């Protein structure tokens, strides 16, 4: 089997590249980023950036389709998607763990051992993901009413959630593969797989939601159909990742080297803080739904669309951060600490500039964007100002998420976990609860608090990176 890897020599003086013209190079130089580093970042990050954005296309596609079925259906898909995210969150930490370990080994030139963390992650995901999926499926009808009392929402959310949790183990495996492809600088594999997944998801979900398959006795399934289409597409992606791993990475140890207890221990140490963080973040999103639900069902539908649109913006920023973490991790593996320190600052500048164009567009035409997902004019109107806030602050989110994911990429998961948990659960959620419960504030107030807490996070993450304590983390 062939192995496709980058050359082992990766000094700060990159080999000459063709791509940026003179004017573009000068523009980036004015922003303080040398053109050769811009090209390096874009080569590594653009596929990841597009892939991260396209992850949320699964939820956006469901929301857009189900939006034709009414406000209650949109609220149901929002609740179901977020509860499904709670199940997945416990498995997401494997991605940063795999990336940190594999990138370091690539930088050190230990090629036959690069995929061993991936092998370990796949074992952990199956052991954790299958029981999680079974429990969530069995207790869906008891869990959904904890967050809403609307009978119409419950009736659609329960089957939708059950359909989505069928793919929980596959999601965990896909996260592990994502970390691996990023680490070995083959993010195009990730991107190409997601394109196929989204094509399958859109086609199958559309058919099952609105038309059914009369030849097989399957009627139109509404929200359930959207969930089934999404889950099937995720399993398609897993099959493609396994095939690509066999094709491209057997020489790096994929399915060839047995993980050691040391590998499992290091991976668990790296993955646990991130998994706990993601689980609590997802639980915090469910708490946000519950808080907004005190205002009304229309507001729940609106906040579902806002969250998905916000994720559509921030997931590319996360992708850029993961790319920064991979570049820094490989630099650490080479022993070039100064290069490792500089990458996230360069990536943050690039990300902020690129995302500012998208953010400004959202701020200028919020009603057009919201109208694609909400048919209720009142729901659109109450979401306009929050969406404008999201668009105008996306640059700050870009810097925050770049630093956060760069820290994860070099193995500093514990400090990231502490900042994320404290800022969400000790600052944002109590503030939002008090604002709605005691001061009768609306969705705009809640969303303003949400934006503010994320900005505070960014300042803290940047300070942690600047201090440089992450350079002392060992990933043997």
Brief synopsis:
This protein has 476 residues and is an all-alpha fold. It has helices at 22-30, 35-66, 71-108, 116-138, 140-143, 151-165, 168-183, 187-211, 223-248, 261-293, 297-334, 337-364, 366-371, 377-392, 394-409, 413-439, 443-467.
Task: Report the span from N to C terminus.
Answer: 27 Å
Pairing-aware structural class of the strands and helices?
mainly alpha
Task: Give the DSSP E fraction (strand runs of 2 or more residues).
Answer: under 5%
Estimate the global geometry from the Cα principal axes: globular
Number of E strands: 0
The helix/strand series, from N terminus to C terminus, equals HHHHHHHHHHHHHHHHH
> Largest sheet, described in full?
none
Radius of gyration: 22 Å
**How many structural domains can be distinguished in the coordinates?**
1
- Average pLDDT over all residues: 83
**What portion of residues is helical?**
over 70%
Q: Note poorly predicted spans.
A: 1-18
Organism: Ostreococcus tauri (Marine green alga)
Subcellular location: Cell membrane
Transmembrane segments: 120-140, 160-177, 189-211, 223-243, 264-289, 301-327, 347-365, 416-439
Membrane topology: Multi-pass membrane protein
